[in-house]
Amino acid sequence: MDQIVNKNLLKVTCASSDDAIAVLNPATDEILTYIPSVPTAEINGLIEKSKQAQLLWQERTAAERCAILRKWYDLVIENSDDLARIMTLEQGKPLAEAKGEVLYGASFIQWFAEEGKRTYGETIPTPASGKRLMTIKQPVGVAAAITPWNFPIAMITRKAAPALAAGCSFIVKPANQTPLSAYAMAELAYEAGLPKDLLIVLNNHSSVAVGDIFCQNDDIKKLSFTGSTQVGSHLIKQCADTIKRTSMELGGNAPFIVFEDADIEEAVKGAIASKFRNAGQTCVCANRFYVQNAVYDEFVEKLAKAVAELKVGNGLEAGVNIGPLIDMKAKNSVMGYINEAVEQGAKIISGGRSLEGLFVEPTILADVTQEMEIVQTELFGPIAPVIRFENDVELVEKANDTIYGLASYFYTGNLHRAFNIAEKLEYGMVGINEGIISNEVAPFGGVKQSGFGREGAKQGIDEYLNVKYLCFGGF
Fold it and tell me: What InterPro entries does the entry give (predicted)?
């Protein structure tokens, strides 16, 4: 490991012990290193340190805080190659994708380094001549986050950057499968001048135990979570006892829609980018494909041709487009969905095979129907089930037939249809003739059981600020 990446970024690694957490390379199943498991009994002490650091941090000017964030951004860009390699080693995604995520994650630090200086209050026209009214915005206090393994840098910076810019301290529990990216990012933040108690990364063998403490400790004023709807629902219930602010980015089941008036070549490109990025292990990736009858066969044929050109393998190898799934549980789940769909009448057009290790061929399934389990489930793997539809009314009904409402996509050449469908889709984000929609300047988040709250954009920093109303009398 030390010969592959800059070891100054991974100072947290430790020797193997009974309490250590092994970090594996999913492409090879080799142990990369070990990290310490913070004893559960010590977590409340870390929260107290974070609280004391936050009280000092909020007294610094927004310009001072944001100058440190800007230095952090510069260091991330400077070390982007090493950060990408670390990510590929522990998460498996192709190196080019990992580099893209590093830049994407860095963009949130850069954005909130500016946005933190614009958390404006307002003056309010008074209803009484002897009063003056205004509002100010103040940090909520200690913010905590639990982040997933699929985007181990971006899912942290999208939360940490606005929290720190707002004047909060930040504690993150990254996934045990991919902690090294989090620790490396923290080291760069410290190098930029951020006090260590302001940004704390902790891991424990039990994510449940950490979540319980985050929810129950009254000093944590905000909890942000990215993960499954089931776990998010549990965390919300736990946070109710302390009336804690929460934001939840939960499960997705994104429809990808191709109308008969679409540019099919562009739709295929968008489908590849949306569906097969990160081996389909993306909450906003296309999960089910609806294609209008008139162009169904053409789209499936061209998609199959494009998928056949994707190379599966170790993300460190040149030309690889699809890396391994994160673990054997994920692989078994993906293969189970494929096999079940075939038993129910779906036809494998491309792929469908389990490969050695944690690899699965990118798969296209035709003749899929709305009633199949594969349509109702978040797949989190490289499977593209394709469903026929006749008209817009039928399409909207099918696309909205899910408990989820995170992302959606459609391709059309008709401007009237574009606005009409975009307004009727019950999703927090809609990509129109575009397969990749996430960026730092637009609000990211869902509706229905995909959660609430927004990350990125000007709305992202408001999640970490309280609005205080001031009423001055005696004028």
Answer: Ald_DH/histidinol_DH, Ald_DH_C, Ald_DH_CS_CYS, Ald_DH_CS_GLU, Ald_DH_N, Aldehyde_DH_dom, Aldehyde_DH_Superfamily, Succ_semiAld_DH
pTM over 0.90: yes
**Helices 62-78 and 180-191, interaxial angle, to 10°?**
120
C-alpha dihedral (304, 306, 311, 316), degrees to nearest 10: -140
Between 207-216 and 40-57, two packed helices, what is the crossing angle to 10 degrees?
50
Per CATH, is 254-432 categorized as 3.40.309.10? Answer: yes
Scored b (16 or more CB within 10 A) or e, 425-451 reads bbbbbbbbeebebbebeeebbbebbbb
Active site residues: 249
d(CA 77, CA 75): 5
Q: How far is CA 315 from the centre of its chain?
A: 20
Confidence band (pLDDT; 50, 70, 90) for 10?
confident
CATH homologous superfamily of 7-250+450-471 equals: Aldehyde Dehydrogenase; Chain A, domain 1 (3.40.605.10)
pLDDT band at 11 (very low <50, low <70, confident <90, very high): confident
Q: Which two tokens stand for residue 210?
A: 């950490």
Residues in the chain: 475
Phi, then psi, of 83 in degrees rounded to 5:
-65, -40
Of 274, 273, 280, the closest CA to residue 331 belongs to: 280
pLDDT at 15: 63
Distance, in Å, from the CA atom of 441 to the CA atom of 296, rounded to the nearest integer, reads 35
CA dist 173 and 182 (Å) reads 9
Neighbouring residues of 20: CB distance < 8 A, sequence distance ≥ 6: 14, 34, 35, 36, 37
CB 383 within 8 A of CB 352: no
Say which residue, 3 or 226, is predicted with more confidence: 226
In 3-state terms, what secondary structure has residue 430?
strand
How do residues 347-364 score in pLDDT, each as one tens digit?
999 999 999 999 999 999
Q: Please name the helix (run of DSSP H) or strand (run of DSSP E) that holds residue 385, with its range, or none.
A: strand 383-389
Q: What is the average per-residue pLDDT within 68-80?
A: 98
Domain spans of the chain, in order of start: 7-250+450-471, 254-432
Give the pLDDT confidence score for residue 6 in this predicted structure. Answer: 63
Q: For residue 449, what are the contacts with CB-CB under 8 A and spacing of at least 6?
A: 229, 233, 250, 251, 403, 404, 405
Alpha-carbon dihedral sign for residues 161, 104, 425, 397: negative
State phi, psi for 231 to the nearest 5 degrees: -70, -40
Q: Which two tokens stand for residue 205?
A: 């063998």
- For β-strands 132-139 and 142-146, DSSP reports them as unpaired
- At 190-229, the pLDDT tens digits run 999 999 999 999 999 999 999 999 999 999 999 999 999 9
Per-residue pLDDT band for 166 (boundaries 50, 70, 90) equals very high
pLDDT of the residue at 3: 46
Contact indicator for 12, 36 with CB cutoff of 8 Å: yes
Alpha helices (runs of H) in 116-203, residue ranges in sequence order: 154-166, 180-191
